[in-house]
Amino acid sequence: MATKQETCGACGPGYKSPLDAMKGPKEEIIYLPCIYRSTGIDKPDYLATVDVKPGSPYYSQVIHRLPMPCIRDELHHSGWNACSSCYGDHSKRRDKLILPSLISSRIYIVDTGKNPRSPSLHKIVEPTEVYWCTGLANPHTSHCLASGEVMLSSIGDPSGNGKGGFILLDGETFDVKGTWEKEGESAPFGYDFWYQPRHNVMISTEWGTPKVFSKGFRFEDIAAGHYGQRLHVWDWQRHVRTQTIDLGAEGAIPLEIRFLHDPSAAEGFVGCALSSNVFRFYRTEKGDWAVEKVICVPNKKVSNWMLPEMPGLITDILLSLDDRFLYFSNWLHGDIRQYDISDTSNPKLVGQVFIGGSIQKDGPVVVVEDEELSEQPEPRIVKGKRIRGSAQMIQLSLDGKRLYVTTSLFSNWDKQFYPDMIKEGSVMLQIDVDSKSGGLSVNPNFLVDFGKEPGGPVLAHEVRYPGGDCTSDIWL
After folding, report:
1. CA–CA separation, 254 vs 14, rounded Å?
2. Which of its termini does the chain have fewer beta carbons within 10 Å around, N or C?
């Protein structure tokens, strides 16, 4: 349901500030895409609506499924037509979910305003329109802009090569307007981005070459140059790249990037998947941007795995709305971590919980040397179900007290690293968060088992709330 902040006549969607957002209503439903591509089930992906209101007769159940009209799209991430960046515009409403397809390059516009518990398909932007108008493909992250437009990052070009550009949609018609960046300014690779107008900056990250990573992960493709390791700094007003920061091997595959939510802050964090490091980026006194490595997840020496050492593989990262805690998931090791970032240059680990992963005690992988753990973690069982796959996408409640986690990363990588999850489906769990002193624990009463879906086991990915969240809202 729409909140008071979203319907009052003097304001637009979202909240005036991040701290105001923390006082918003508790989430009651959640949207997340469910993927059939690469699972052996030839059915369309769909958007699931899940009831997360305690006391509801449908608590932790899928209450609606909106199938897409096409197959093999690979729904992945999503965003809104309007968010807190449009708070000052009373004509805007957060009522359309932008749902890009990572592989087909199709973009679905879903109407969540008419009936939030039963969304409907509003419009389809076909791949040909994206290709012809922008020369881009494989859309990933979607953010609304204060202008009323919607911007999506691209990962590739129509031929499957790497290309990091930005697709602009009209915020009313959702027609493709062209590219945000000026001609010739696209980056070699793309993935995620975050903008901060007070500092006239946007920073984007890199994944890899779509026609390479879409087939599965091979370590030799790193050396062959098919994966990124750079941050790209953009002039927000001029739409041009002004700086490229090469993170080197210690920053291999930088994925999710988050500025601090405080719009006056000129710093943030990026999680680097393969190197399993977190870098802090910040504006220097000279006015350019620099980085420092602030968190390192050590590799574990193992046997009975594809390599003698296993990285954590940081795949998602987020910040609480008060900029006090940083959270991230290690998709191979299987843990979610919580860090106190009161001192942004010296994050302190204050919470950790294991959910699945590749190093469970009764699994085939044997850890022979570990800098952090004295023994391999026990399997995670919730409501009688053993969790296959691993902690992956995470989303924090507005008040910072509940963390939702799903276990699927990308269908072909899921099939490669966690074949049992393809057979049994992914899950969504809820993590209880100590938001005062730190600490994480699994809620034993919450489980959404996507292995029991009517169409067969499916892979659920990124989580969104109707009222916005800490990874889709940007404040000006």
Report:
1. 29
2. N
Q: How many residues does the chain have?
A: 476
Question: Within 10 Å of residue 371's Cβ, how many Cβ atoms?
Answer: 10
Domains plus CATH for the chain?
4-460 (2.130.10.10)
Please give the full DSSP string across 232-265, using - where no structure is assigned.
EEEETTTTEEEEEEE--GGG-SEEEEEE-SSTT-
- Residue 4 in this model has a pLDDT that exceeds 60: no
Q: What is the DSSP letter of 4?
A: H
Interacting residues of 211 by C-beta distance below 8 A, sequence separation 6+: 156, 159, 160, 161
Reported pTM: 0.96
CA atoms within 13 A on the CB side of 105: 26
Q: Are strands 448-449 and 427-433 parallel, antiparallel or unpaired?
A: antiparallel
- Strand 230-235 and strand 381-382: the pairing is unpaired
Average pLDDT over residues 387-410: 97
Q: What is the mean pLDDT of the chain?
A: 96
Nearest to 250 by CA among 233, 268, 269, 273: 273
Q: What are phi and psi of 444, to 5 degrees?
A: -70, -10
pLDDT tens across 225-241, in order? 999 999 999 999 999 99
The answer to whether the beta carbons of residues 103 and 38 sit under 8 Å apart is no
For 161, residues 6+ apart whose C-beta sits below 8 A from its C-beta are 209, 210, 211
